[in-house]
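re: the backbone from monday

yeah here it is again, tokenized this time
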């Protein structure tokens, strides 16, 4: 043991989830036991459902909260709307899109799969071709990962909806928004999303443990005819219990109370301001990466994520060494590469409770680590690039105060 370093919990994390937690949310989650059958629970549940709907960008969706993570949200989406043997159209462009596809196959669904190299976005034109070729409308659902957390790539969900509309295809549009919702623009109604999936541990800045799922009226209309097995995540039980303020089983009350407070914080900041903050921080990080002379995993700048930046390292260099040394020596957590990019990228998460000042500490640490490992990094180069961008792009209110 050594005391020459501060404890790890003094430092922010730079993984793409779970994210750093504001003290107000830590306190909101830490609540005494209460009777969830009492009148006190609806006072927490109903405002939370209403505010989550706002964050999803919907006026008509019904929101369901399950004890679980985004993965359970995927299962909720397919099991409540599809039947064994149904065909779905999906694109694999990273680890999490791959996992959702694998889940569909395990449930006995037929997957028509489009594959692109990891680092590319979902090709809307190829999705359109597949939909146009499906003249008999055998495809029952289109699955899309809005923000591929493994590669730091954002896909254009509006373009996928346009492909569905242009071909007159009736398939549901299901979207994994786990690392985008509450951090990046998400328009459930505007994009015609039928099922939106997210979790508590990313943009909502809470511990892992809540799957948050929004169903459009179109998706809700299919629930009775769906024949995939479901019990715990059967939204019919939720729909029956919610109006009276009930819950079909014991709710994760502290997390739901935390979600209520998180939504209040997001809406008080203003969703447009939340999205602008994330974009601004992300752009500063990207400029730092360019100053290091390293490429992004994202194939082009316009598809780069505003919540996580995946950085490719030099050919032959194991990127896991950066993650390991940061943790062991500086007590700072970065994200490791996953799946096809394992050992080839490291990831900087910059979502949720994140500011420019916090991000600077992560960039400075990454520079120290890379210099320690002998990479050709000039200390301060990336930090200076980010500082220059952030100073020049101060929000107008701060400029006026100065």
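seq for it, each position gets an aa:
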């Amino acid at each position: 043991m050594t005391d020459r370093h501060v404890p790890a919990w003094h430092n922010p994390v730079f993984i793409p989830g779970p994210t750093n937690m504001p003290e107000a949310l830590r306190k909101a989650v830490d609540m005494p036991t209460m009777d969830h059958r009492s009148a006190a629970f609806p006072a927490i549940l109903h405002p939370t459902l209403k505010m989550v709907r706002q964050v999803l960008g919907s006026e008509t969706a019904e929101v369901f909260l399950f004890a679980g993570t985004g993965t359970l949200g995927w299962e909720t989406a397919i099991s409540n709307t599809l039947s064994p043997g149904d065909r779905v159209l999906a694109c694999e462009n990273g680890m999490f899109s791959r996992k959702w596809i694998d889940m569909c196959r395990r449930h006995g669904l037929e997957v028509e799969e489009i594959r692109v190299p990891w680092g590319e976005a979902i090709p809307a034109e190829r999705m359109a071709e597949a939909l146009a070729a499906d003249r008999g409308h055998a495809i029952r659902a289109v699955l899309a990962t809005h923000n591929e957390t493994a590669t730091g790539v954002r896909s254009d969900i509006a373009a996928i909806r346009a492909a569905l509309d242009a071909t007159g295809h009736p398939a549901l549009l299901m979207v994994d928004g786990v690392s985008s919702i509450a951090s990046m623009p998400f328009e459930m109604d505007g994009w015609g999303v039928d099922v939106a999936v997210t979790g508590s541990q990313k943009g909502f800045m809470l511990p892992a443990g809540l799957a948050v799922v929004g169903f459009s009226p179109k998706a809700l209309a299919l629930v009775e005819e769906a024949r995939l097995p479901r019990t715990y995540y059967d939204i019919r039980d939720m729909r029956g219990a919610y109006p009276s303020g009930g819950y079909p089983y014991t709710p994760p009350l502290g997390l739901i109370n935390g979600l209520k407070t998180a939504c209040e914080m997001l809406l008080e900041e203003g969703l447009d301001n939340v999205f602008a903050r994330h974009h601004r921080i992300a752009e500063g990080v990207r400029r730092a990466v360019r100053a290091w002379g390293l490429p992004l995993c994202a194939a082009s700048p316009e598809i780069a994520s505003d919540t996580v930046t995946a950085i490719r390292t030099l050919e032959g260099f194991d990127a896991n060494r950066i993650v390991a040394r940061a943790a062991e020596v500086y007590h700072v957590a970065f994200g490791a590469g996953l799946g096809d990019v394992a050992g080839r990228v490291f990831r900087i998460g910059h979502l949720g409770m994140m500011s420019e000042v916090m991000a600077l500490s992560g960039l400075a640490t990454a520079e120290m680590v890379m210099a320690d490992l002998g990479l050709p990094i000039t200390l301060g180069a990336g930090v200076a690039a980010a500082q220059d961008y952030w100073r020049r792009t101060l929000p107008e209110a701060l400029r006026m105060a100065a």
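Residues 271-292 form the longest helix (22 residues). The radius of gyration is 21 Å.
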